[in-house]
Automatic annotation (TrEMBL):
Its EC number is 2.7.6.3. It catalyses: 6-hydroxymethyl-7,8-dihydropterin + ATP = (7,8-dihydropterin-6-yl)methyl diphosphate + AMP + H(+). CDD domains: HPPK. GO terms for biological process: folic acid biosynthetic process; tetrahydrofolate biosynthetic process. This is 2-amino-4-hydroxy-6-hydroxymethyldihydropteridine diphosphokinase. NCBIfam families: folK. Pathway: Cofactor biosynthesis; tetrahydrofolate biosynthesis; 2-amino-4-hydroxy-6-hydroxymethyl-7,8-dihydropteridine diphosphate from 7,8-dihydroneopterin triphosphate: step 4/4.
Length: 159
């Protein structure tokens, strides 16, 4: 099985329940085993800022899916949970991003691994470093991440 890391975020509706629904959707697949789930972090929106704050988590999984199949599964799960894409960086019921997949590097129009924006986003890196401290080497100044308004709100979700 391959090891992968996902970032899951939400800022519409019952945010904790949305995260729980996403986790339940992941484990419903016989191709995915959840290894670790980070605490829940609340963050202000990035990109398009005129929207509600997000709840974010990082998830370490083991999977038999290929990287592209994992992305396809995550996109299908987002749709199943009710995600509607209105515009880039807009509000979303659920967002599931593939951050890392073993030591694989992919740069296609459909999929980029490592995720191209992850190192710049505290709402991705802080939860990721929580569950995988060795990933702190991915950022030059992890202390600067703390200044980006990421607030731990819950030590765990109850999926």
């Amino acid at each position: 099985m391959a090891k992968a890391f996902l970032s899951i975020g939400t800022n519409i509706g019952e945010r904790l329940e949305n995260l729980n629904d996403a986790l339940r959707g992941l484990v419903a697949s016989d191709q995915i085993k959840i290894i670790h789930v980070s605490s829940v972090y609340e963050t202000d929106a990035v990109g398009y800022e005129n929207q509600a704050a997000f709840f974010n988590i990082a998830v370490e999984i083991e999977t038999n899916f290929s990287p592209v199949d994992l992305l396809d599964f995550c996109l299908a799960l987002e749709l199943e949970l009710g995600r509607v894409r209105l515009f880039k960086w807009g509000p979303r019921l659920i967002d599931i991003d593939v951050l890392l997949y073993d030591d694989v590097k992919i740069d296609t129009e459909k999929l980029k691994i490592p995720h191209p924006y992850m190192k710049e986003r505290a709402f991705v890196m802080i939860p990721l470093i929580e569950i995988s401290p060795e990933k702190s080497n991915l950022v030059k100044n992890s202390a600067a991440l703390e200044e980006q308004g990421v607030r731990k709100i819950k030590n765990h979700v109850n999926w």
